[in-house]
Amino acid sequence: MMAVTKGILTPALFAAGLLLTGCDRVNRVNEALELTGTVSGITPRPIGPDRLRVSLPGTGAVAALAPIAQNSDVTVWQTLDGITLSFRRGVLVATRGLGDDLMSADVEGDVNLLHATGGDGYYPHIRSHLDGENRTVFRSYQCRRTGQAPTRVKVSDQVTAARRIEVLCVSRGDEFTNIFWLDGAGRVIKSRQWVSTAVQYMETERIPR
Amino acid sequence: MQWCFGKPIGGAIAVVLGATSAAVPEDGTKIETGYNSYGYPGLIDMPVATSRPDGELAFTISSFAGQTRNTLTFQMLPRLSGSFRYSVLDNAVGGGTSTLYDRSFSLHYRFADETDLRPALAIGLNDFFGTGIYSSEYLVATKTLGSSVRVSGGIGWGRLGGAGGFTNPLGIFDDRFETRPGRDVGQGGEVNTQQFFRGDAAFFGGIEWQATDKLTFAVEYSSDDYPREDPAAFTRDSQFNFGATYKIGPMTDLSLRYLYGSEFGVQLTTALNPKFPPNDAGRDPAPPPVLARGARSTAALSWSASTEERASLRARVADALRSQGVRLHGFAIEPDSGARVEIENLAYLQEAQAVGRTARVLSRLLPASVARFDIVMIVNGLPVTELQIGRADMEELEHDLDGSWKSFARARIASPVSGSRPVPDRYPRFDWGVKPYLSPSFFDPDDPLRADIGAQFDLSYEPAPGFEIAGSLRQKVIGNLDEATRRSDSVLPRVRSDFTLYDREGETALTNLTAAHYSKPGRNLYGRVTVGYLERMFGGLSSELLWKRNDSPFALGIEANYVKQRDFDGGFGLQDYEVATGHASAYWDMGNGFHAQLDAGRYLAGDWGATIALDREFGNGWKIGAFATLTDVPFDTFGEGSFDKGIRITVPVAWLLGEPSKSSVSTTIRPILRDGGARLGVRGRLYERVRPVQKPALQDGWGRFWR
Fold first, then answer.
1. B226 Rama class: left (phi>0) / alpha (psi -120 to 50) / beta
2. Position B180 confidence tier, pLDDT thresholds 50, 70, 90
3. pTM score of the predicted model
4. Which phi and psi angles does B408 have, rounded to 5°?
5. Helix (H, G, I), strand (E, B) or coil at B661
6. Cα gap A75→B94, rounded to integer Å
7. Higher-confidence position of B559 and B9
8. Do A72 and A108 form a contact (C-beta atoms < 8 A)?
9. CA distance B347 to chain A (A)
10. Those residues with Cβ within 8 angstroms of residue B230's Cβ, 6 or more apart along the chain or in another chain
């Protein structure tokens, strides 16, 4: 992965207390990102001790993220190189800095399914992204639970008991399957979630404190 | 031949040709439409009725028997495409010595789509300006059979009615259709409407077979009789042509042909579509998240409103904005109501993105009691647009599915009444930079493509709001523009046609050095006075007044200048020629990305007339347009080309690199640059400074507010 480049290796960063190393950059073409130098990624200021390990199997990138903001039930997590991921109770609602970003998502049905009494019926799931002319494009999916089973899952080298929930979302000419692993307290400790056509799936894993 | 007054780095376009992904054709056909040897939608030499995807910009180069055609084609509407072609005809009759260089335009309009029963139908005009070597018209039908075969057939006139021609069937309406009048070529450039669809007509047709995803075969019966090329350049033994096209890249095709029973030909086509950026919506670093009050941080946002604390808050806001590519211009805070924050967007093509990032920064830093952000967009020291954004809306809509539209609907956007109140360290400000430049020259028959490359030094000094002293110096490093030996034969004052002398003598040249004052004399009025060396060829005084309401698609402007011609060497000297020039301008944002502009007035050579310009602007900043100027200079006096016209292309750097940038690369292509209808080039014209910051443009770019 990418080596730490100058300008990133600042004392301020270490002061931020992040356990992040050079491989905490999702974007592999980082040199090209600094051609214009007009905007810099913000320095992460963690608001809590939790960390999240995220990988993008499509590009092979891996990074650890720290929480930097909380707005009602949405938590924003950030890498070192200016990428943020926002989750509503464990379900992805936005990405920034990945290029083909998820701009917003209505995940009320997913949250109900994971955390309340969601049943086996279909529920709506809506996502938006920007097209090549900066217009917001919405895409509506019908989702339903296609699997639920108790299992044991390895999270950060520790095997724990978890509930595995699989969700299939279908739109015309497009579909994806998200998988969530919940611990006994009902928190999402591991997941595989769809981001966008260019970014594909994203895998997340809670790093225990 | 052209002279760039903007940022002439046109070559960068070539770098990304073929880089974007292919689009689904909008007319619903399964078999991709190709470009023919003339560069418009077609088979081999003949047209088809289908079109390319909307917005596509293609470059085609084809060659056989010494006939080389370079064509730039733009699918300007889903049904309408336009082509500009530069041809080199070896051994053609009319070439004088032996080689003929010709510039021509084509239009292709699909007026009916294919249905189950009916074929697609299109009409086309070729080479309707000027010498008319390729002058022809056609009506063509195309029908798909099954999933991989498509047949086309039509009737042509002019050059396309030459082989196998018969008496024009339109003669039943009027006998005049039966003869195609000779063309009064004159100086070229005139539209020859009196020839349209007249003279003998002939049938043509062909079949395309999509053998695999990448390989297509075509056979056609051509009605083109090559009146100037046969027999001087080659001999037609047959009217049947055979071709194979292989897709060597996602947007690049290579074709081989066997033509007219005697010649082999080759064609390369490459295209891009501005609608599909190579980096999707851009790899901008993520914006800072909104800090919701009451979450945990109200303590961090409390303050005592002392003078020291205000200054320290202002400094923290300025720092945070700077890292987001935004410069703080003014800052006033009323702790129990709102904050008024003046900003200059330095980074983003879409001003809405600068507004969104500013509002995010303010939500993180301002005291919790501040409920409203008044963000004022500053351009050249002038407050152009004020946006009132509720802090609670930022907190509520950050993760809302429809947050983009809702936040736009809730923002109040207007032209501010009050002036700007700059922060103490904003003025005076000195800036400088060095960047490379590329200055191309097209279509000199001795060498159709020349260019200079060098370094450009820019400096600017802003002593106070609205005042700017700016200059640019160019140093040529390498290039061959000075090899041009053709001298102007113009009988008009040589206000542009001496460009080769400027290129030759000005290897180190001061391209501009001006002092300018920008003002806002009324709520919707903007003013500019510029004095100095305005452009490479002229210096003097330029003044402008623009009326533009914040929410209106219309604007009116007036410009008056008094200028003297500069010396060729790019120094401080002036020549004797001086002229009063100026225009009244009307601007219209037509919607759907189309923009029209009409300028009427007196041009540099003292001629009176008007310029009409039409541009298509994509939501990502690409602009492709055309312009034409008619003045009281008679076509014979104007010289070759008859009147000034051309096409212009602007490519945003952000589209190329996928990073935030306000810069763009522009180039203007004129068939020929002469002295009639020449407009002064002056920096800082108001309309294009003001428009991107006003409500309609903010709305178009609001998708990036949350980015």
1. left
2. confident
3. 0.90
4. -70, -45
5. coil
6. 74
7. B559
8. no
9. 6
10. B236, B260
Contacts with B663 from chain A: Cβ below 8 Å: 36
CA B265 from chain centre, in angstroms, equals 32
Q: What is the pLDDT of residue B184?
A: 63
- Phi-psi region at B628: left, alpha or beta (left = phi > 0; alpha = psi -120 to 50): beta
Give the single-character DSSP code of B464: S
Bridge pairing between strands A174-182 and A188-196: antiparallel
Determine the Cα–Cα distance for residues B537 and B498; give it in Å rounded to an integer.
Answer: 9
**3-state DSSP: chain A helix, strand, coil percent, rounded to 5?**
10, 50, 40
The nearest CA of chain A is from the CA of B551 a distance in Å of: 20
- Which of 592-651 (B) contact A at CB < 8 A? 618-620
A155: which residues sit within 8 A by CB, 6+ positions away?
A: A162, A181, A189, A190, A205, A206, A208
Sheet with B412-414: list strands edge to edge. B326-333, B338-345, B372-379, B382-390, B412-414
pLDDT the model gives residue B181: 82
Interface of B with A in 294-313 (CB under 8 A): 295-296
Measured CA to CA in angstroms, residue B237 lies from B154, B260, B261, B262 at distances of: 22, 6, 5, 6
Query: Nearest to residue B136, comparing CAs of B69, B232, B227?
Result: B227
Question: Which residues have a Cβ under 8 Å from the Cβ of B238 and sit 6 or more positions away?
Answer: B260, B261, B262
Return the closest-CA partner of residue B536 out of B501, B552, B512.
B512
Query: Chain B window 398-427: which residues touch A at a Cβ cutoff of 8 Å?
Result: 398-405
Quick check: helix, strand or coil at residue B145?
A: strand
Residue A26 binned pLDDT confidence (cut-offs 50, 70, 90): very low
Question: Closest partner residue to A132 among B275, B400, B401, by Cβ?
Answer: B275
Element (H, E) at B345: strand B338-345
Structural element, H or E, at residue B408: helix B403-410
Mean pLDDT of B117-140: 92
Distance set, CA B648 to CA A57, B557, B629, B666 (Å): 43, 22, 14, 7
Q: By three-state DSSP, how is residue B172 classified?
A: helix
Q: How far is CA B273 from CA A62, B41, B58, B269, in A?
A: 33, 16, 8, 14
**Closest chain B CA to residue A44:** B288
B186-200, B319-333, B568-582: range with lowest mean pLDDT: B186-200
- DSSP code of residue B360: H
Dihedral sign, CA of B96, B100, B101, B102? positive
Give the 3-state secondary structure of residue B496: coil
A86 to chain B: nearest residue by CA? B399
CA atoms within 13 A on the CB side of B632: 9
Q: Which of B319, B358, B361, B399 to mutate to test the interface with A (most CBs of A within 10 A)?
A: B399
Q: Are A20 and A64 in contact (CB under 8 A)?
A: yes
pLDDT for residue A23: 39
Which pLDDT does position B16 carry in this prediction?
44
Are residues A166 and A177 in contact, defined by beta-carbon separation less than 8 angstroms? yes
Residue of B nearest to A43 (CA): B288
Q: What is the pLDDT of residues B134-167, one digit of tens each?
A: 999 999 999 999 889 999 999 999 999 988 888 8
Q: What is the DSSP letter of B160?
A: G
**Is B702's pLDDT higher than 60?**
yes
Give the model confidence (pLDDT) of A118-146 as tens digits.
678 899 999 999 999 999 999 999 999 99
Mean pLDDT of B193-219: 92
The answer to whether the Cα torsion of B89, B91, B96, B97 is positive or negative is positive
CB B59 within 8 Å of CB B70: yes
Residue B271: closest CA among B255, B252, B254: B252
pLDDT of the residue at B297 = 52
